[in-house]
Amino acid sequence: MNQETLLAISSNALFFAFILLLIAIVPLGLAVKSKGKMFGQFGILLTSVAFVLQLVYFVVRWVAVEHAPVSNMYEFMTFFGIMLTGSYLIIHFLYKQLVVGLFTIPVSLIILGYGSVFAKEVSPLVPSLQSHWLTIHVMTVAFSSAILSVSFATGLIFLLKTLDVSKKSISTYSLEFVLYCLVVVIGFIGISTFFSLAADDVQVQFENAQGQSEKVIYSMKPLIVNKGAVTETGDAVGFIQMTNKIDAKKFNSIVWAFMIGTVLYAAIRLVTRKSVSAILKPWTSRVQPQLMDEISYRAVVIGFPLFALGGLLFAMIWAQIAWSRYWGWDPKEVWALITFLFYAAFLHFRLSKGWEGEKTAWLAIIGFGIIVFNQVFVNLVIAGLHSYA
């Protein structure tokens, strides 16, 4: 089979896996609210089949592109989402907690959906990516990040179970803000998909900070543009012009995400007359908080050493091969170190200071925020050697 056929097979496998995971949420939700085992078994079966299809996507795409498909944002975020699905299945067979899947699978779907907004085209690897250590480094980071993300889901479950979300406090406001951020990501996925299907790209040209003419293609309607930006025909474009030292296209995407996400969040609040926390809380009615706390801790115990290997040791080996130095204080390297130090502090406080329960839950949520910031914001916005991703 030629490359085009293989890529089509892999894309279809990933699409059907996405649909199966979406469907799996229903029986898992029914199982959490009822005592019957049938719904839970069906939900796990769907999740398992979806995971197999995700692996089919990964292997077939690997064959098609002739290198591990983890070299750009689409491939990395997709593999991250796949590993989160796999991590949940591992946790399920250890602890048999369906409620963890009810919260983990939507996060996996959000990650997969987010990855789908990036370009899926195959392009030749730049020289720095032509190394087997890249594959080892990135895959280990994605797998460890996925396991650590399970602690985020169980942290959310713990807080939803133990906090009185009807009362106003720093904890309840913070929990609601975390859920609002997830809604914003969903909004970004939705508006990105809409523009890709229903609108044409807009090419904008302007003079960059170096005084050179630069052209940028906007997939979303340009609201934010760089100073002096015009269309190909010379027409004015955008509503707000920003200094050319800032990537206006990426800032434009952030603005759209928060606009649509805020509208979606407001619609949920208006229709249900409840906070998102209050909507989700009933699904944790049968949860054992101590068990969620235990799973959060165990996920970090497993994920932390793997991240140390992939995010630091293997990364430094690859850096030496690609750039002839083990460490260069690149933004990505700095944030990998911050992530490592944060989870080291997590385990330190847990083991020596006795931090458990709500403190562990909040640390797990903050840790997930650092992972997302590192894997998304640092790659896309902060200039560095990893900006190609």
From TrEMBL:
Chain segments annotated as transmembrane: 6-30, 42-60, 72-91, 98-116, 136-160, 172-198, 254-272, 299-322, 334-351, 363-385
Q: Which UniProt keywords apply?
A: Cytochrome c-type biogenesis, Membrane, Transmembrane, Transmembrane helix
Q: Per the record's keyword annotation, is Cytoplasm included, yes or no?
A: no
Q: How does it sit in the membrane?
A: Multi-pass membrane protein
Checking InterPro entries in the record gives: Cyt_c_assembly (IPR002541), Cyt_c_biogenesis_CcsA (IPR017562), Cyt_c_biogenesis_CcsA/CcmC (IPR045062)
- From the Swiss-Prot or TrEMBL record, state where the protein is found: Membrane
Predominant cellular place of this UniProt entry's protein: membrane
The Cytochrome c assembly protein domain is annotated at 70-181, 258-386
Q: Please report the name of this protein according to its UniProt entry.
A: C-type cytochrome biogenesis protein CcsB
Source organism: Lysinibacillus pinottii
Which gene name belongs to this protein?
ccsB
